[in-house]
Amino acid sequence: MTAVVPIVVLTAVLTGCGILPDRQGGGGEERQAASQSQAVSQSQAVPQPQTEEPATATAEAQATAAAEELGAIASRKVSHGGSNLRVDITGLRRQGKIATLTWTVADIDERTDSWYVGTRLGSATLDFTVSGVSLIDPVNGKRYRVARNGTGEDAECVCSKANETIKGGSSLELYAVYGAPPADVTKVNVEFPNLGVFADVPIS
Q1: Can you list the domains of the chain with their CATH numbers?
Q2: For the CA atoms of the chain, what is the radius of gyration?
Q3: Checking DSSP bridges between strand 74-80 and strand 196-202, what pairing results, if any?
Q4: How confident is the model at residue 43 (pLDDT cuts 50, 70, 90)?
Q5: What is the number of alpha carbons within 13 Å of residue 22 lying toward its C-beta?
Q6: Which residues pair with 175 in a beta bridge?
C-alpha cells in the first residue's frame, strides 16, 4: 500500500533534495541531452486461447476499476518477465519544493503466477526500492531523481520499498518523492526502468 511520508521525513527531504545533483538517486536534477531517445513502444501481448480470455478480462477489469477509483491520470499496458502488466499513474502533485508521484502496477493476467518487483524499479543491483523511477523535464532538459533522506552513503530514498510480489489479478500501490520542477513546468515525462516512459504527465 502507498506509504504516507511523515512530516519529519519530508523536512529531511527538503534538506537533501538537490544537494547532490550528480548522484544517482540523489533527489536532484540532471542535465539531459536534447536528443534524448523517446520511450520504447510497449510490448504487444501475446494472443491467448479464447478459452482463457475471461480470466484475463476479469483481472483487467479489476485493475481498471482500481485505477479509476484512485483517479489515474495516465495508463499503459506492458509485458515484462512473462507477465502482462498495467501501470497506472494516479498522481503527480507539487507541494512547495517537493513533488510526489504515486502509481500502481497490476498483473492483469490471472494465468500468470506473479511478477516480482524486486530491483526492477531500483537504481542499483541490490536496490529493492523504486528509486530508479525518474521525472524528465523535456523543455529544460533536466532529469529529477528520487529524493534521499540525507547526504551520506547510507541515505535512503524517500520512496516505496519494492521487495514485493504482485500476484496475477492483483496490484501494488507505490510512491516516490522528488525535488519539484520549476513552477512554470506543468508536464514531465515519467521514466520507469523496464516498464517504459509516460510522456506529458501533468503536475497538479
Answers
A1: 7-27+52-202 (2.60.40.1240)
A2: 17
A3: unpaired
A4: very low
A5: 0
A6: 102
| Strand (E) or helix (H) holding 172 | strand 171-179
pTM given for the model: 0.70
Residues whose CB falls within 8 Å of the CB of residue 192, separated by 6 or more in sequence, listed in order: 87, 121, 132, 133, 198
Q: Does the pLDDT at position 18 exceed 70?
A: no
For residue 147, is it left (φ>0), alpha (ψ between -120 and 50) or beta? beta
Give me the amino acid identity at 4: V
Q: Residue 6 is placed in which grid cell?
A: 511523515
11 grid coordinates: 523536512
Name the nearest CA neighbour of 121 among 178, 193, 23, 191. 193
Q: Could you tell me which residues come within 8 angstroms of residue 9 by beta carbon, excluding any fewer than 6 positions away?
A: 149, 158
Q: Are 12 and 112 in contact (CB under 8 A)?
A: no
Q: What is the pLDDT of residue 156?
A: 95
Where would I find the H helices in the chain?
A: 7-16, 53-70
How far apart (Å, rounded) are the C-alpha atoms in residues 106 and 3? 17
At 99-137, the pLDDT tens digits run 999 999 999 988 767 999 999 999 999 999 999 999 999
Q: Convert the pLDDT of each residue in 52-98 to its tens digit.
A: 445 455 655 655 655 556 579 999 999 998 899 999 999 999 999 99
Q: Please give the Cα distance from 164 to 92 (Å, whole number).
A: 23
